[in-house]
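Incident log, support desk, overnight shift.

02:14 A customer reports that sequence design results differ from what the structure should imply. Their input is reproduced verbatim below. On-call engineer (initials T.W.) acknowledged and began investigating.
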């Protein structure tokens, strides 16, 4: 049995977990490994923006009669089942004891500061396995993804009060991760409205960043909506995305926003002359 060391690097806990998508798919279909409470736990994190959240945020979102979080115990049970099935490695934490969260999740402290709430993020290969099996097994509920309107005022696990107003902060993601990936693959990561390029402006940290907008808001439809990433989604920067939704009585189209930007630019050029 190989012993892999969990390392603390720049505020993150890192270890090589070489579990393939196919291996995750096999285990997801094994109820002895993914017991109902373990699968429910993983799906709670899967439905969160970027598939990440703190125990604190999940407990607040799904209140129960429990005095404390059950998820540390669940992740230990799940990981024991995973490692027994694979029978090829175990993870040793920074204190010398076995680490459990680091097999199905990545992890770090909020703002990379020890003492803050600890973030778990579902590993990419497990996310892909859930997506590929979701429809087949009926384990993914599209309604549980945050809607675009909710995401515009969603939260990152913490709420901050400012006087009598409560503001929430978030990063925008298309509600279905597969649709988001397809939209970015088709439309790219340069804003389709104003042309802003995050990677060109900010370098590596801006690579692959963009927000995805539904041309027709999902709340206008009834029941499940099939999304065509090529025709139903566009990729825009946060500023343009908010301007699209600026008026509650009218959501701007991409063409309308482009015309506004073009008109503004022309007026500026005329003044300069």
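02:41 Re-run completed on a clean worker. Output:
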């Amino acid at each position: 049995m190989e012993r892999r060391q969990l390392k603390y690097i720049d505020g993150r806990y890192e270890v090589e977990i070489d579990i393939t998508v196919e291996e995750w798919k096999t285990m997801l279909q094994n109820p002895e490994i993914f017991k109902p409470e373990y699968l429910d736990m993983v799906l709670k994190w899967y439905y969160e923006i970027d598939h990440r959240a703190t125990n604190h945020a999940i407990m607040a979102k799904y209140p129960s009669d429990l005095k404390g979080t059950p998820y540390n115990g669940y992740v230990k049970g799940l990981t024991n089942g995973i490692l027994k099935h694979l029978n090829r490695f175990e993870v040793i934490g920074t204190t010398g004891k076995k680490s459990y969260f680091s097999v199905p999740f990545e992890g770090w402290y909020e703002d990379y500061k020890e003492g803050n709430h600890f973030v778990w993020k579902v590993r990419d290969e497990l996310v892909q396995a859930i997506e590929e099996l979701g429809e087949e097994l009926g384990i993914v509920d599209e309604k549980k993804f945050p809607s675009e309107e909710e995401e515009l005022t969603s939260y990152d696990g913490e709420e901050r009060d400012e006087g009598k107003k409560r503001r929430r902060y978030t990063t925008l993601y298309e509600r279905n991760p597969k649709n988001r990936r397809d939209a970015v693959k088709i439309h790219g990561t340069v804003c389709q409205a104003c042309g802003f390029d995050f990677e060109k402006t900010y370098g590596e940290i801006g690579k692959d960043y963009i927000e995805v907008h539904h041309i027709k808001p999902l709340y206008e439809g009834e029941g499940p909506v099939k999304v065509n990433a090529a025709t139903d989604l566009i990729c825009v920067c946060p500023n343009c995305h908010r301007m699209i939704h600026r008026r509650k009585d009218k959501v701007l189209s991409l063409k309308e926003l482009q015309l506004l930007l073009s008109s503004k630019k022309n007026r500026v050029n005329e003044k300069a002359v």
